[in-house]
Amino acid sequence: MLTMTPTRIAQTWAVAGLALSASLAFAQQDAAAEQAKKIAAGAGCFTCHTIAHQDSKDGKLPIGPAWEDVAKQYAGKPGAADFLTRVVLEGSNPYSSHWKNQASGIAMPPNAVAITESDTRKVVYWILSLKK
Ligand code: HEC
Fold first, then answer.
1. I need a surface site. Which of 12, 20, 37, 58 has the fewest CB within 10 A?
2. Host domain of residue 117
3. pLDDT tens sequence across 63-98
4. How many domains, the chain?
5. How far apart are the CA of 108 and the centre of ligand 1, in A?
6. What CATH number does the domain containing 86 carry?
7. pTM of the shown model
């Protein structure tokens, strides 16, 4: 017969607890992504952006960069979240595109009229977490 010593029981519970907290973490991530997507839709971001990278058709570039491309461009760059939050709220510099030959070249207008700073942060964190 299999006997469970108190240590064995404690170990079993510890393993179960770890598995449970890992799946809770995933559920929280999903919820955060869903919330960010809703905020972005409500603020009109998808007028100019897609989430997924699109290959240019007939040499046509997207209006704004796909957010998967943004995640790739800023991966591992310290301060990226703060920097992008400012660009989204205040708009991009019309004379110095960060997306030369990858997006339309027009400037992103300031979005502060459509989205709060804390919502912008949520969307930016989610954008930076995207993977192709
Ligand atoms: C009217 C079109 C338009 C809308 C609406 C828009 N964007 Fe943009 N966005 C752009 C363009 C164009 C660029 C590229 C700017 C450049 O060339 O540097 C851009 C760039 C970005 C970048 C990358 C910035 C950088 O400097 O690399 C992020 C992140 C971004 N947008 C997020 C958002 C979010 C979030 C929203 C909604 C709140 C939004 N955008 C709404 C057009 C738009």
1. 58
2. 31-129
3. 999 999 999 999 999 999 999 999 999 999 999 999
4. 1
5. 5
6. 1.10.760.10
7. 0.87
